[in-house]
Structures are given as C-alpha cells and as structure tokens.
Amino acid sequence: MAVETLSPDWEFDRVDDGSQKIHAEVQLKNYGKFLEEYTSQLRRIEDALDDSIGDVWDFNLDPIALKLLPYEQSSLLELIKTENKVLNKVITVYAALCCEIKKLKYEAETKFYNGLLFYGEGATDSSMVEGDCQIQMGRFISFLQELSCFVTRCYEVVMNVVHQLAALYISNKIAPKIIETTGVHFQVKVI
C-alpha cells in the first residue's frame, strides 16, 4: 500500500453544494415552530391565570385588598460598606437624611394634606349657628399645633441637609476638606 502525500501547493477545493445553507434554514424553521408553540402555551397560561384572578377579585364585591410589598431586612449601615471609611460616613449621613425626608413627605401626605385641604368645607356661613365657627376653630387648634411641630422638624432637616452639603463642598482653602469633591455632581431623582 502506497501512502500518497499532498504537496503544500495543492489546496483542497471545496465545492459549495448549499448543504450548510439548507441545514441552517431547517434549524431556523424548527426554532420558529418552537417559538410559536411556546408563545401559544404562555398565552394559554396567562389566560387561565387571568380567569382565576378575575373570579377571586371583584372590586364591587370585595372593596378591601391587601397590598403586599417586600420588606428589606438589612439596615442602612449594612448596605453602605466600602474600603474608604470617610466615604462610608459621608454616604451614611446623606442616606439617613434622605430617609428622614422620605418619612416627612409621607407624614405630610397622610396626616396634613387632607386636613389643610378640607378645613371649613361642607358648611356654608348661612347654615352655621352662632358659635359653630369658634367650636370648629377650637377643634382645629390641636391639628395646627401638630402642623407647627412638623414644619419646625422639616426646617431642621432642611437646615441639616444644607449644612452637610456646605461642609462637603467647602471652598475655604484653609479649612481641611473632608473628601475630594471636584467634579462631583449630584443627580436629581424625580419622585
């Protein structure tokens, strides 16, 4: 048996018979069929779930619902961990201030907006007898006292935010910088 060797000058001439293209088209068709079947299966599941949810919940029959939100169990200090201890402290201060502002906003929306918005509504001057206006105002005094304390607390928090920002962005050349802030810009987050 003789072994023939191929010279490096000779290249194997491939004949493109289109078999790869045909195979690719077959695979593409199979993938398309799979996607169509999977889509129809997902639609059937979605329709089945929509029907069962509709049977359980009807706003006219059940006006009360539970709103379940995930509860984060890690504290703010656990979330802020970097190698730079000064940066940790700065971020912790701003995060605590942001949490305080969020709580104050929630308290204002739930406790004070409606009282201020609807005070004196529903009664006309002609329908009120002598002394009813004074009684209504007397009942409103405790609300105004709570509102005054709330406004004072908001003022203190805003002053704290301004002082913290001023300490961070100090431009005095003599005073020591807490952290290098050149080129740092805070992003505005609209809620």
From TrEMBL:
It comes from the Eukaryota. GO terms for biological process: endosomal transport; endosome organization. One of its GO terms (cellular component) is endosome. Residues 32-188 form the WASH complex subunit 4 N-terminal domain. PANTHER family: WASH COMPLEX SUBUNIT 4 (PTHR31409). This is WASH complex subunit 4 N-terminal domain-containing protein. It comes from Canis lupus dingo.
